[in-house]
């Protein structure tokens, strides 16, 4: 499929929430009025300087923004090529980029007068970030989490409970992130008046993909300023991992119209694309409709959604945000994939060389950086989004490496 | 494009839904609409249940199309989908089931109910052609609101396939005309804000909702979600043109499986007996109310 080159890659979505053929609002009628209400409230908030000022204040004093842009000199030396920078979003409060979005949406939910917040979570990072902002504002919080994920992410489950949230195990379907999203949608349908659904990634029905992107854009906006200060020019290459794709779109969006910048998204190839056990929706899937939007999905020939696999629970989703599907088809962003074992290697490399234990999600991005950096010149500026810290993953990694804790 | 009696279709419809509601109106009674999931738990069981439903009093039949992620369904219908999926059910196979049903019954309308993705992957044009040929009369697609009419609703109407829209308690008067604009055949009122097979609405709430819908459209109004017993079905039939029962029937199927998930010998008769009781409730409702 060829798509005519647009004047700008940053103008989407259109009024109906479409990025090209992707996006949209494929939800049950019961939810349609709510989604329109969220859209209206968000448009009003965006135009209100008081809302933006409040958000900026919390981002600065509670989340800890701006996050640093750090020159990873030992990794640079190790790779022997491009000059590698990390955008340190793992230093945010709660340890990942997720809180950028949660802070924006919780302030919106408060403006809308909602008293009860629901969320889905896979690895638990979005659940923890949601529970955190709910504690901060004294709101009831219910987090849906697949029973399988609850078992493998016990520390985050306990964190959510400490923060006052109720974690509801999801046993329907395959008991992972996609089923957690199904159950969150079912809850929302049954509690339309009281409840706000705080979606954690750039997926779901319009306006969520655009709204969550707007809240994560701060990552790239900061990188632009920080790189100008550090090097006096813009970066040459951007790399980020992609599950739903919120950290990636956050880094990429401000640079989409800079034609000289290479932009690379890294999907999870699990046991390898040919194994059929992976989470690479763009490379291994095709367009379909799930969770309110049209996007690339892992599915069979009858349109039944297939299970994703990745060692990283945060990338373990059979879809991807619709804007990424569009950026993929338009050719602006290059999407590649990295396997479980490659990510594990990068996880250890970064821990030892930089004293930073990365989350398994950015370890995928890191692996790709280590692949391409050696062939790039020393004055090539490469920025990778270190979107989460790896504390949550030490048990998974230990098990994968055969270590007893 | 809008018309007070429903959206115009371009190719001729099968006419079965129109004929059925006209006959019911002449008899002064409401329609009983059972729902079962295609191929739950086997194609043979579905075929036998379908075959027996008209004689048991089903006026229109809703046949569920499996989807891996049924966001609007409660535990009973989710489980039915998993059973059907375990048996290898597909949309293509569902059309085959309808085709076989039509060899013995050319008057009972069949509506396919499901989520958009399997239809999208089948290919909208190919699906509509195959579905018409198989004898499908209409579609209910849960996750296609009017905002996405160009996907399947408008092509279906063009092809002479009814597109039955859901109206819900959250559909306010401002939004209702848009919901009704391209609805055809009948309108399906979802009586609760919630998923299938959970809560039930009060009779007063149902009556008020039907009255509201009737002030906006001349189409027949069916009511579903939360109707589990012949008594509840009868109560709904006093105020609406049709009562839909899904989860309670599907649960009865679940309750009549052996340890391997295969149908027990009495499954089909048990389901048809229950359907008969529901149909009796619906069909006698206005007569009893008048007595």
How much helical structure, as a percent, in the residues of chain B?
40-55%
- In CATH, the homologous superfamily of chain B goes by the name Aldolase class I
Principal-axes geometry of chain B comes out as globular
Low-confidence stretches of chain A: none
The biggest beta sheet of chain B is recorded as:
9 strands, parallel
State the major sheet of chain A.
6 strands, mixed
Q: Shape of chain A, please?
A: globular
Helix run count of chain B = 12
CATH class of chain B: Alpha Beta
CATH topology heading of the largest domain in chain A: Rossmann fold
Q: Return the CATH architecture of the largest domain in chain A.
A: 3-Layer(aba) Sandwich
Work out the number of β strands of chain A.
Answer: 14
Number of E strands of chain B: 9
Structural class of chain B: alpha/beta
Number of helical stretches of at least 4 residues of chain A: 16
What is the number of independent domains of chain B? Answer: 1
Low-confidence stretches of chain B: 1-5
